[in-house]
Amino acid sequence: MSTKQFDVVVIGGGPGGYIAAIRAAQLGFNAACIDEWKNDKGGPAPGGTCTNVGCIPSKALLQSSEHFEHAKLHFAEHGITTGEVAMDVAKMLARKDQVVKQNNDGILYLFKKNKVTFFHGRGSFVAAKDGVYEIKAGEETISAKHVILATGSNARALPGTPFDEQNILSNDGALRVGGVPSKLGVIGSGVIGLELGSVWRRLGAEVTVLEAMPAFLPAVDESVAKEAAKIFKKQGLKIELGVKIGAVKSDANGVSVAYTDAKGAEQSLAVDKLIISIGRVPNTIGLNPEAVGLKLDERGAIVVDHDCKTNLPNIWAVGDVVRGPMLAHKAEEEGVAVAERIAGQHGHVDFDIIPSVIYTSPEIAQVGKTEQQLKAEGVAYKAGQFPFLANGRARALGDTSGFVKFLADAKTDQILGVHIIGPMASELISEAVVAMAFKASSEDIARICHAHPSLSESTKEAALAVDKRTLNF
């Protein structure tokens, strides 16, 4: 039986992979994508961690829990009278699953629309010969001249404490908790820990977050991190910094965590469920890189250059399995760029203006340099800040927490970083990304007419604040 031959084969159907396959097909290549994710019926579920157990389902739960909290605490302010508010967790999870399925099905439709051949199963290298790579695609063997690896990442477990997804949970298990735990522990105050901790706190869980770092959200602008810590504490999220985790024990009664606090005192935390959120590790399980001599680094990531080329000709890698931030949109941009480079075009990704978002309430979004980075680099800068408390639309929404902050070069006024904590920060940050892509100054944003009343006026006002001339504060 002859082996099916393709111009481009993508291993992994997450954001980087499926987008790369579609872009390759748009450029005229005979493209295929291999992905092994399964739904609860054993059928294909492309979309990777992001769609199945990450970005999409977590946002669905965040939305449901926000509705619940609004109904319980804030509807009365609007004159809306309700009876006793209750959460049907099973129905909430069913809605989350439906949202995931819609995204899975949407990707399969896009493959069909763009004539991408899809293989459901694990993709792995078999051999390389005469510039062609032989690849196992589920039950079939195929070949390709160009291979794009987009195999993603897995949750990092605590040493000696494997996930059982019943009591000790990764992001996967944390999205499938069948009822509201009375007490929930979270180890790690990163994006996943804060988002999922927020979900269950809103629904009534007592949430304690244990963080090894001495500073809260150290990768976030310091003023934003301080504001976030203050707001989260007021909401009831208990956060302990500078802790050292000891023994973690799980039994029928729940989980106990022994730890040393920042002052060196021995402490113990007893919870019903424990979410481990201490980062992610590159996933090359089953890829069989040894078969072709693919180089990995000490972290298990695939080694690539700035253009996502590996050590092997015509093999590329994108997304979580390579260097750089583990963000779905970063993977997508790399996937598009690689497909275009294969076609001889000049695919480009500007790693300096990749936005990052934490979907808590309030949301946190940033792009570019933080104030502490600029200080460390000795860059002379000006800062401007505007609070949502002074924004008319935020008042009407009933959500005036947080602010917008601009950082601009002291001499040229070029925007160096924008940091937002507040309502719809994930949407507002896009204006800053566009501005920085075109090397705009804060004055450029200050001079652009923004619709009134809108949250985006806070962006304009923060830009005005760089020159100390805000109009509404």
- How many angstroms separate the termini? 74 Å
Structural class: alpha/beta
Strand content: 25-35%
Give the % helix: 25-40%
Overall geometry: globular
Low-confidence stretches: none
Overall average residue pLDDT: 97
Number of helices: 13
Name of the CATH class of the largest domain: Alpha Beta
CATH A-level architecture of the largest domain: 3-Layer(bba) Sandwich
Question: How many domain units?
Answer: 3
Specify the CATH homologous superfamily of the largest domain.
FAD/NAD(P)-binding domain
Count the beta strands: 22
CATH topology of the largest domain: FAD/NAD(P)-binding domain
Largest sheet: 7 strands, mixed
* Radius of gyration from the alpha-carbon trace, in angstroms: 24 Å
Family: Belongs to the class-I pyridine nucleotide-disulfide oxidoreductase family.
Binding site for FAD: 59, 123, 151-153, 320, 326-329
Active site: 452 (proton acceptor)
Domain FAD/NAD(P)-binding: 6-335
